[in-house]
Amino acid sequence: MFDIPPRRPARAVRPGSRPRAVGGPEAALQYRVVHGHRRAFRMAGEGPALVLVHGIGDSSDTWAELIPGLARTHTVVAPDLLGHGASDKPRADYSVAAYANGLRDLLTTLGIESATLVGHSLGGGVAMQFAYQFPERTERLVLVSAGGVGREVTPALRLVSLPGAHLALSALRLPGMRLQVELAVGLMKLLDTDLGQDAPDLLHLVDALPDATSRNAFIRTLRAVVDWRGQVVTMLDRCYLTAGMPTLLLWGDRDSVVPVRHAYGAHEAMPGSRLEIFEGAGHFPFHTDPARFLALVEEFTRTTAPAGWSREHWRRLLREGRPQGSAGLSGETVRELREASRRSAT
C-alpha cells in the first residue's frame, strides 16, 4: 500500500475548544448548533486539520471509507453541509458563498483556525470560495472533480434546475420507478458509458432525498450554481489568487458530471497546481480507487508547506490582477477565462 508517516503535532487546532475526536473504523456523527441550525459533522484523529467537503445531494458519509486512514495523521472534519445529510434543511441561502461562511463558523466553534480543504464537486467550489473569502485560514486545497471551473455540467443537473423539478424528483419515489431506474443504470454500465461509471453513486443521491424538505434544499442548492445552460458561477477568473497556495487537482478521466477537460483548464489557470488523473474513474475517483486517493492526499499534505498568507501579498495579487497574456494557455482555457469575466462567484 503506502507508508504512513509519523504523526505530526497539531498546529491549527486550539486545545480544549473542540469536542473529543472520534476514532475507530467510522467516525460517528456529532452536532453543533450554529445560527440556530443544527449542523452534523464527523470528526476523528489528531494533527493538522483536514476538512472534507462533500458534493451536492451527498453527505459526510461519502468519505466514510477514507476517514480512518486520514485520521492517522490529521484531525479530520467532515461536515454535512446545511440542507444535506443529517444537518438542518431550512429555507435559506444555499450559495457557495453562504456555504463558505457556514464552514468557517462551524470550524470556529470546533476551535480550528486553519485547515487543508478537500472538496468534491460542489464541495470543490465551496473549498475554492472558502480560500477566496478566508485565505488566512486556508493551508492547502485539494479539488476533486470540482465544480466552479467551466460552464459544462451533466444534462441531468441542468434539467433538474428547470421549473417542475420537484415533481420529477418526487416521481422517482413512486412504486415501480426504483426498478426502472435500476434497469437503466444496469444498461448504462453494461454499455460501458461514462455515465454508467457514476450511475450507482448518482442513484444513491436520489435515495438521499426521501422527503419534500430534502428535495427543496437540493433544488435550492442546485439552482444557486446551475441553470439550463450549465454552471452559473465560476472561480476561474480569480484562480490567479491561488499563487502560493499548494493545490492538488484530482479527476476521473471518465467523469460524466464535470468533464475532465475542466481539470486541465483549472490546472492551467492555477499557478503551481498539481494534477492527477484517475484512469477509468468517473465523478467519484475516491470511491473508484480509495487507496490511491488516500496516498495522494497524505503525500501532498506531507510534502508541501501550508500557504503563508500575508495581507501585503494578497493586496499585490489583487492590484496586479489576472495576468493578461494567454501564452501557454489552451484555446479552450482562454475562452473560459473570457466567459468567466461575465459570470463570477461573489
Short characterization:
The protein has helices at 67-70, 96-109, 122-133, 155-160, 165-171, 177-190, 194-207, 212-225, 261-269, 285-288, 290-303, 311-320, 331-340, and strands at residues 29-34, 37-44, 49-53, 75-79, 115-120, 138-144, 226-227, 230-231, 247-252, 274-278. By secondary structure, it is of the alpha/beta class. Strands 1-2-4-3-5-6-9-10 form an eight-stranded mixed β-sheet, with helices on both faces. Strands 7-8 form a two-stranded antiparallel sheet.
Give keywords.
single chain, 346 residues, eight-stranded mixed sheet, two-stranded antiparallel sheet, 13 helices, disordered N terminus
Describe the structure.
With 346 residues, the chain is α/β, with parallel strands linked by helices. The chain has one domain (1-346): Alpha/Beta hydrolase fold, catalytic domain (Rossmann fold), CATH 3.40.50.1820. 38% of the residues lie in helices and 15% in strands. It has an eight-stranded mixed sheet with strand order 1-2-4-3-5-6-9-10, sandwiched between helices. β3, α1 and β4 form a beta-alpha-beta unit. α6 runs antiparallel to α7. The chain starts with 28 loop residues before the first strand and ends in a 6-residue tail after the last helix. Residues 1-24 have low confidence and may be disordered.
